[in-house]
């Protein structure tokens, strides 16, 4: 599986909601960009308690979903931007159904691995609320499974727009990002599924712990 990297997007922390700062807005970079253990250099996360770190080093929100959001929200200019959903990687023809927890991809000279689905938060609605009526976007993401996902970095390197994102190893073939999101974020897991996820080594530790906690 090979897909063309249409853009690399990064951001800096800016005023976002009153006194609060966020680097949710990501913008395309030109030329080669370093990929380090915690993501592109530079790429900021304002609230390090819940964003960033090695298990959320790179975020991919599928460009294919922008068409769905145009139908849902209207034809707003923000959806022309590849980093509209805070995504670092702009890629078409690749969604949560196509990738698994633990899949390894070559990105430029770096090696990255799918670590977890992205859990949506209020910042998505706030970001889009400047352009349209965004109420209910988080709920829609949870119901539709259009979550996006994160990668951890196994080998540092660099990449630029136009490079290939190539899968070089398949992880947990039973656990697509779509299924993992439905189980742990949408709350649809059976007990057997929770037991599997609690022991799923490539899954980010916080989500393995969430699965354990749901087992009681």
Q: Could you write a compact summary of the structure shown?
A:
The chain is an alpha+beta fold and 216 residues long.
Cα-atom radius of gyration: 16 Å
How much of the sequence lies in strands comes to 25-35%
Number of strands: 14
CATH class bucket: Mainly Beta
Biggest sheet strand line-up: 1-14-10-11-12-8
For this structure, what is the CATH homologous superfamily? Answer: PK beta-barrel domain-like
Taking the sheet with the most strands, its summary is:
6 strands, antiparallel
Give an overview in words.
The chain is an alpha+beta fold and 216 residues long. The protein has a single domain, classed as Beta Barrel (M1 Pyruvate Kinase, Domain 3). 24% of the residues lie in helices and 26% in strands. Strands 1-14-10-11-12-8 form a 6-stranded antiparallel beta sheet. It has a 3-stranded antiparallel beta sheet with strand order 5-2-9, with no helix packed on it. Strands 7-6-13 form a 3-stranded antiparallel beta sheet, with no helix packed on it. A hairpin with a 2-residue loop joins strand 10 and strand 11. Helix 5 runs antiparallel to helix 6. The longest helix is centred in the C-terminal third of the chain and has 11 residues. The chain is globular. The relative contact order is 0.20.
């Amino acid at each position: 599986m090979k897909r063309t990297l249409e853009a690399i997007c990064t951001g800096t922390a800016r005023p976002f909601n009153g006194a609060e700062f966020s680097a949710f807005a990501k913008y395309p970079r030109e030329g080669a960009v370093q990929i380090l253990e915690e993501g592109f250099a530079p790429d900021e996360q304002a609230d390090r308690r819940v964003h960033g770190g090695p298990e959320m080093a790179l975020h991919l929100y599928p460009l294919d979903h922008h068409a769905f959001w145009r139908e849902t929200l209207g034809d707003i200019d923000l959806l022309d931007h590849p980093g509209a959903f805070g995504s670092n990687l702009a890629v078409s023809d690749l969604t949560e159904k196509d990738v698994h927890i633990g899949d390894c991809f070559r990105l430029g000279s770096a090696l990255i691995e799918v670590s977890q689905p992205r859990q949506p938060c209020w910042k998505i609605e706030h970001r889009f609320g400047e352009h349209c009526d965004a109420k209910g976007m988080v709920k829609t993401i949870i119901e539709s499974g259009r979550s996006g996902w994160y990668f951890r970095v196994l080998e540092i390197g660099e990449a630029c727009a136009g490079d290939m994102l190539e899968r070089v190893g398949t992880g947990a073939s039973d656990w697509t990002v779509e299924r993992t999101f439905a189980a742990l974020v949408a709350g649809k897991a059976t007990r057997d599924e929770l037991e599997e996820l609690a022991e799923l080594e490539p899954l980010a530790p916080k989500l393995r712990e969430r699965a354990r906690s749901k087992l009681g």
